[in-house]
Amino acid sequence: MTMGPVTSKSDEQVPSVEEATSTPPGVPAKAIEGRSLGQIAWTRLKRDKVALTGASVIVFLVLVAIFAPVINKFLGHPINEFHQDKINPSLGGIPEPGTWGGISKDFLLGVQPVTGRDMFSQIIYGARVSLLVALSATVVAVILGVVLGITAGYFGGFVDSAVSRLMDLILAFPYLLFSIALISVVPVTTAWRIGVVVGVISFFSWPYIGRIVRGQTLSLREREFVEAARSVGAGPTRILFRELLPNLVAPILVYSTLVIPTNIVFEASLSFLGVGVLPPTPSWGRLLSDAVNYYTYDPVYMFVPGLAIFIMVLAFNLFGDGLRDALDPKANR
């Protein structure tokens, strides 16, 4: 009995790299496309379902704030319309017990104590105030923090020492007491009060991003691309805003999304203490303050604005965490 030749694995023909990667005849070769850092970050962010959920909630709340008059027209009542027939003066100005704050098909979130105003309209219009103050304060704080932080980190020396000591002083200051003292003496108009609240929040927020930008600038100013810019005669302004700033976009963007919820809570705290936005302009913090006297009778008065603040703050925090992971090249996702 004869046996045929035995072929080992080493004798088998192994395709070369060129053959393995070549395309079949008649099929056009597919060009290899590189991906930018933005595309890589977006791909990573799309895989983070928690961050996308937070972003969806943020978009929803922003749309509610923008279209509050339209929404209120169909689902609520005029913002300053009193409904005395919905409250019982003998009970201290609250609805009848067991009605959950007066919730019904006509008043989706009940009515406000004493005044009887629609809580639904107060909540959706209050979202406007919270987002306006928080976003405005964040923009001002980011501008101050970036300009001063990048200047201190690049120039060093006396400039760095002066800016760093200023940041330490502001961070050590009792900001809540200062805010109460300052806001209580400003002219009693809604526009002035909102402007001062934005100024106070941004003034006490910029040192945090200033420290982050300063630290990043200290590590970037010795990099090769900065030395190359100096060698071709680039001045400090060009190096700061054309070379360094583009490399700081990621941490600035991440910190901005994380400081917004802090500013929302800051504004609510000031309104809770009575030095925030003036009535009758709706404010979630003032709704919480008004509910202090009534939550033992009906917890809905504290639960509704508290839940609104909780959802908005949580959404920004979840999105900020996801954005940080997407922009961090060292993150293992």
TrEMBL record:
Q: Which UniProt keywords apply?
A: Cell membrane, Membrane, Transmembrane, Transmembrane helix, Transport
Q: Where is the signal peptide?
A: none
- Keyword match Transmembrane helix: yes
Occurrences of domain ABC transmembrane type-1 (ranges): 127-320
Q: Which residues cross the membrane?
A: 50-71, 129-154, 166-186, 192-213, 252-279, 299-320
Cited CDD domains? TM_PBP2
Q: Which InterPro entries does the annotation name?
A: BP-dependent_transpt_permease, MetI-like, MetI-like_sf, OppC_N
* Record GO cellular component, one term: plasma membrane
- The segments labelled Disordered in the record are 1-31
Could you tell me the Gene Ontology terms of the biological process aspect for this record? transmembrane transport
Q: What is its main location?
A: membrane
Q: What protein does this entry describe? A: Peptide ABC transporter permease
Which species is the source of this protein?
A: Dactylosporangium siamense
